[in-house]
Design goal:
The complex is a heterodimer of chains A (about 300) and B (about 300).
Chain A lengths: L7 H8 L7 H8 L4 E3 L11 E8 L2 E8 L5 H6 L7 H16 L4 E7 L6 H5 L2 H13 L5 E10 H5 L6 E5 L3 E3 L3 H8 L6 H8 L3 H6 L5 E3 L11 H20 L2 H13 L6 E3 L1 H5 L22
Parallel strand pairs in A: 3-4, 4-5, 5-6, 5-7, 6-8
Antiparallel strand pairs in A: 1-2, 2-3
Helix pairs in contact in A: 4-6, 8-9
Chain B lengths: L1 H21 L13 E3 L6 E3 H6 L15 H8 L6 E2 L4 E3 L8 H12 L5 E8 L2 E8 L10 H16 L4 E7 L7 H20 L4 E9 L1 H4 L8 E5 L9 H8 L10 H6 L5 E3 L4 H11 L10
Parallel strand pairs in B: 6-7, 7-8, 8-9, 9-10
Antiparallel strand pairs in B: 1-2, 3-5, 5-6
Classes of the chains: A alpha/beta (about 300), B alpha/beta (about 300).
Chain lengths: ~300, ~300
C-alpha cells in the first residue's frame, strides 16, 4: 500500500467504512482483561466514551476511548460517537484517576466531532473541551493518543493532547468533516471530495507536518478487511513507547509534550523579515522575550 | 496563486511599515471620518463624540457597536499608548488554500490590522497586566496559526513576568483556511494557560460578541474568572449548526450572555461601560501580598 497514491477522499471512505472496527473491538482484541467503568459523577454516563482499566504486559493502564457503536440501536445509544460535555467530564475523571494511581493512559480517538445540540450547549460543551485540553497538557502520567478512524475537530482534539499522537493509516484527523468544511468554504457540502483534497487530513500528510508522531500501518485493503497485523503492530508499539516514556523524567516528558504542540503553526506564522531588520531591540520572533519586566514604551 | 501571495506579502509589508509608526497610538481608528455614526441595530444616528463617551454603546437601543481589538484594549488600559507584542506576525498559507491570501489582505484593509489578535502589556488602574484582544472585523476574529501563536506568546510572556492575563475574545472559532493548523492552536493556547495557572497566576477571560467554536472551546472559557459582555452570543456550536442538527427552533435567548450566566458557564455578565472597573476590582483581589501596597 505504501507507494500507491490514494486520494484523500478514499481515505475518508475507508475511515468511515461501516465494517471498520470501532474502539471497543480494538480494546477487546488488545486487552482481553479490559474492565469498563462508567460515569462522570456529575450528570450521567455518556456512552460515546468508553473508559476503563486493562493491563499491557502486566502493567495496569487506563483506557479512554470514543466509541461510535456498530449496530443501529447501539449507534443511537452512543450518539454516533459524538460526546456531550458529560463525556469529556467522564474522560477527565478517568484521566485524573490514572494520574492518582500513576497509570499510563491510552486514548482512542474516533468521533465526527463533539455534539452540537441544545443540552450540550446548556451543559457547557466549550468549557468541557477547553478544560480537557488544558488539563491533559500537564497530566503527570505517560499518555498516548491514537486516532482509530475519524478525528473530527475540537471534540477529537480534547483527548488528543498526549505525549504521542498516532494514527491508523486510513484514519483522518481534521478541523471539521470534509462536508462541513465544504459547506463553510465552498457553500456546498456536496463538494466534500474537493475539500478532502485540500484539507491535509490523512495520516501521511499529518506525519509530514509533524502533527502526528507515528502511523499504524494497515496492510491490505484496510482495517475492515484485516485488522490483526495492525493491532499487533499497535500493541508492540505501545509496549515499547510506554516503556520509553516511563524512563523519561516527568519534567522532561511534560516539557516535550508542551513543546510538541507549541511548535505547531510556527512555520505558518510568517515573520516579516523586512521589519525585523529595522531597529527593534524588541521581541525576538523565536520565543518569549528576555528582559521584559519594564520595557520602555517606544515613542 | 503565487502572484497573489507576493502581492499580499508586499502589501502587508507596506501596511505593516506604516502601521508600526502608529501602533503606540491606540487612536479611534474604528471610527469613520464623518460626524455621525448610524447604529447597526436601531438605525438611529449617534454623534461620534457621544458614542465614545458611551463606550461604543448606542444611547438609544443599548446595542454594542462592533469595535476593534486596539480600541478594546485602549478602553481598558490606563495609557492608550502601548507597546505592542509581536506586531510583525502575519499569516502564511499552510494549506495553499485558494483565495486565502486575498482574504487576508481584504481583512487587513478592513480591520486595519495585520491579524485578528492584538496584544500588549499595560497597566489597568496601576496594575500591570498582559492583555490581548481578538478583532471580530478580521475574518470573524478566527484563530489561525498567527492568532494561536500570539495568544501563546502573550500568555508565556505573562508567565515569565508573573503577570495576570486579560484576554478579550470575539471570534467565530478556528480559521478554516488553515485547517488542522488552526485546530492545533486550541491545544497550544490552552497548554500555555495551564502553565500560567500552575504558577498561581490570574487569568480573566472576557467573552464578547460573538465567542464560539474553537476559541470558546480553548482559551476563552478557561478564565479563573469568565466575564461575558452583556448582549454577547457565546457557545460552542453556532446557532445555525445546532438548528440543522436538532431540526427545531432554538429557544428565546439561547446562547446569550444571560443564558451562559444562568447555566453556570460565566462568572459575571458586565455592561461594556463597566468592564474596566470590574476588571480592575478583580485584579486588586488577586494582587500578591508583596504588591498590595505598591500600586
Amino acid at each position: 500500500m505504501a507507494d500507491k497514491f490514494i486520494h484523500p477522499w478514499e481515505r475518508v471512505q475507508l475511515a468511515r467504512n461501516l465494517k471498520r472496527p470501532t474502539s471497543l473491538h480494538l480494546i477487546k482484541s488488545l486487552f482481553p482483561d479490559f474492565l469498563e467503568l462508567h460515569g462522570d459523577r456529575l450528570y450521567r454516563d455518556d456512552a460515546s466514551f468508553v473508559c476503563g482499566l486493562a493491563t499491557l504486559e502486566g502493567m495496569p493502564i487506563t483506557i479512554i476511548a470514543q466509541e461510535k457503536g456498530t449496530q443501529t440501536q447501539e449507534k443511537i445509544a452512543r450518539n454516533f460517537g459524538m460526546p456531550h460535555p458529560e463525556g469529556y467530564h467522564k474522560a477527565l475523571r478517568f484521566a485524573e484517576q490514572a494520574e492518582k494511581f500513576n497509570r499510563p493512559i491510552l486514548f482512542v480517538i474516533d468521533t465526527p466531532g463533539a455534539y452540537p445540540g441544545l443540552g450540550a450547549e446548556e451543559r457547557g460543551q466549550a468549557n468541557a473541551i477547553a478544560s480537557s485540553l488544558a488539563r491533559l497538557m500537564n497530566l503527570q502520567v505517560p499518555t498516548i493518543a491514537v486516532v482509530l478512524s475519524e478525528g473530527g475537530s475540537g471534540g477529537a482534539l480534547a483527548i488528543g493532547v498526549a505525549d504521542r499522537i498516532w494514527m491508523f493509516e486510513n484514519a483522518i484527523f481534521s478541523i471539521l468533516s470534509p462536508e462541513g468544511f465544504a459547506s463553510i468554504l465552498y457553500k456546498d457540502a456536496s463538494l466534500a471530495k474537493q475539500a478532502a483534497a485540500v484539507m491535509k487530513l490523512t495520516a501521511e500528510d499529518l506525519k509530514g507536518y509533524g502533527i502526528i508522531d507515528q502511523i499504524v500501518p494497515e496492510p491490505g485493503a484496510g482495517l475492515h478487511e484485516d485488522y490483526r497485523d495492525s493491532y499487533r503492530y499497535l500493541k508492540d508499539a505501545l509496549i515499547k513507547e510506554f516503556a520509553l516514556l516511563q524512563r523519561t523524567s516527568l519534567k522532561r516528558r511534560l516539557e516535550q509534550r508542551y513543546q510538541k504542540y507549541r511548535a505547531i503553526g510556527l512555520a505558518a506564522a510568517e515573520i516579516d523579515l523586512l521589519l525585523e531588520s529595522e531597529e527593534s531591540p524588541h521581541e525576538s520572533p523565536e520565543g518569549p522575550v528576555e528582559n521584559q519586566g519594564d520595557r520602555p514604551l517606544r515613542t | 496563486m503565487s502572484d497573489f501571495f507576493d502581492i499580499h506579502r508586499q502589501k502587508l509589508a507596506q501596511f505593516n511599515a506604516q502601521f508600526r509608526k502608529r501602533t503606540q497610538f491606540a487612536s479611534k481608528i474604528d471610527i469613520p471620518a464623518d460626524l455621525f455614526a448610524k447604529c447597526e441595530s436601531c438605525g438611529e444616528p449617534v454623534l461620534h463624540e457621544e458614542l465614545i463617551r458611551h463606550s461604543y454603546v448606542c444611547p438609544s437601543c443599548k446595542h454594542n457597536f462592533t469595535i476593534g481589538a486596539r480600541t478594546r484594549i485602549s478602553m481598558l488600559v490606563d495609557n492608550a499608548r502601548f507597546d505592542e507584542l509581536d506586531p510583525e506576525l502575519s499569516a502564511k498559507n499552510p494549506l495553499e488554500f485558494p483565495d486565502y491570501p486575498e482574504k487576508l489582505l481584504s481583512a487587513a484593509e478592513k480591520a486595519q490590522e495585520l491579524e485578528a489578535f492584538v496584544s500588549t502589556h499595560a497597566e489597568i488602574e496601576g496594575i500591570r497586566v498582559a492583555i490581548g484582544a481578538l478583532d471580530a472585523r478580521f475574518m470573524m476574529g478566527s484563530m489561525g496559526s498567527v492568532v494561536g501563536e500570539k495568544v501563546t506568546r502573550l500568555v508565556e510572556f505573562a508567565t515569565k513576568n508573573n503577570l495576570p492575563v486579560v484576554i478579550l475574545s470575539a471570534s467565530g472559532g478556528a480559521r478554516m483556511q488553515e485547517g488542522i493548523f488552526s485546530l492545533m492552536q486550541m491545544a497550544k493556547t490552552a497548554g500555555a494557560l495551564s502553565r500560567h495557572a500552575a504558577k498561581g497566576l490570574f487569568y480573566i477571560s472576557v467573552l464578547t460578541h460573538p465567542t464560539t467554536g474553537g476559541v470558546a472551546a480553548s482559551f476563552a472559557t478557561l478564565g479563573d474568572v469568565n466575564i461575558a459582555e452583556a448582549g454577547a452570543l457565546i457557545g460552542f456550536a453556532g446557532p445555525r449548526v445546532i438548528k440543522q442538527t436538532i431540526r427545531q427552533d432554538l429557544p428565546e435567548g439561547f446562547q446569550t450572555a444571560a443564558f451562559q450566566l444562568q447555566h453556570g458557564m460565566v462568572d459575571l455578565v458586565v455592561e461594556r461601560a463597566e468592564l474596566k472597573t470590574t476588571i480592575a476590582r478583580l485584579l486588586k483581589f488577586h494582587k500578591k501580598a508583596g504588591e498590595r501596597h505598591g500600586g
